[in-house]
Design a protein that fits this description.
- By secondary structure, this protein is α/β, with parallel strands linked by helices.
- The protein has one domain: Rossmann fold, CATH 3.40.50.
- It has 7 helices and 8 strands; from the N terminus they run βαβαβαβαβαββαβα.
- A 4-stranded parallel β-sheet has the order 4-1-5-8, sandwiched between helices. A two-stranded parallel ribbon has the order 2-3.
- The longest helix has 24 residues.
- Keywords: Kinase, Nucleotide-binding, Transferase.
- GO terms for molecular function: AMP kinase activity; ATP binding.
- This is KAD4 kinase.
- Belongs to the adenylate kinase family.
């Protein structure tokens, strides 16, 4: 369990690797990784648990409000949370301010062309949210989930025609959010085309805030 309070946000456009970064944070720092869907399906007992919290927006590239179910977790004492891809708008950031004070914000900056390629090659298992990429993380059998054998689907907003619009929408909405956290001195930006190359810098940053349970080399 984490020994100090830490509340962080991981920001980045669609396809930037926010979920992967969040999973690695959970593994490296002994936290529990939760998606919003998982949180709603499962009961969290034993207050004070350390978590990495992954909050997804609405479908089709929309922007969700703060789910009420997450509020006790974000405000609990000794609770470490890393909210992935949230807040996505200035209004959400202001709402989050009324709930808790963030310690740091991680912003992932990925080139536009890289994001277009990633999103267009992404397929998901609808029931679990598992994500595959046909270029660098394909399923064992094309079009089939590795664990369940059920079919994969491509989200409508991951199809090539929709990707550019999603990225423009994110850029316009996220700019004032990023400026807000930059003005507070808590924004940490990381640029690159590969999560594996960005991750060591994220690991170093978080290691200065909370003790890791495994080394970067083990991740």
């Amino acid at each position: 369990m984490a020994s100090k309070l830490l509340r962080a946000v991981v920001l980045g456009p669609p396809g930037s690797g926010k979920g992967t970064v969040c999973e690695r944070i959970a593994r490296s720092f002994g936290l529990q990784h939760l998606s919003s869907g998982q949180f709603l399906r499962e009961s969290l007992g034993g207050g004070g648990a350390a978590v990495v919290l992954q909050l997804w927006g609405c479908g089709a590239g929309g922007f969700a409000s703060i789910p009420a179910a997450f509020l006790p977790l974000l405000t609990a004492p000794f609770c470490c949370g890393a909210c992935t891809g949230f807040p996505r708008t200035l209004g959400q950031a202001e709402a989050l301010d009324r709930i808790c004070e963030l310690d740091l914000v991680i912003s992932l900056n990925i080139p536009f062309e890289t994001l277009k390629d990633r999103l267009s090659a992404r397929w998901v298992h609808p029931a679990s949210g598992r994500v595959y990429n046909m270029d660098f993380n394909p399923p064992h059998v094309q079009g089939i989930d590795d664990l369940t054998g059920e079919p994969l689907v491509q989200r409508e907003d991951d199809k090539p025609d929709a990707v550019a619009a999603r990225l423009r929408k994110y850029k316009d909405a996220a700019k004032p959010v990023i400026e807000l956290y930059k003005s507070r001195g808590i924004l940490h930006s990381f640029s690159g085309t590969e999560t594996n190359k960005i991750w060591p810098y994220v690991y170093t940053l978080l290691s200065s805030k909370i003790p890791p349970v495994i080394s970067d080399e083990e991740n």
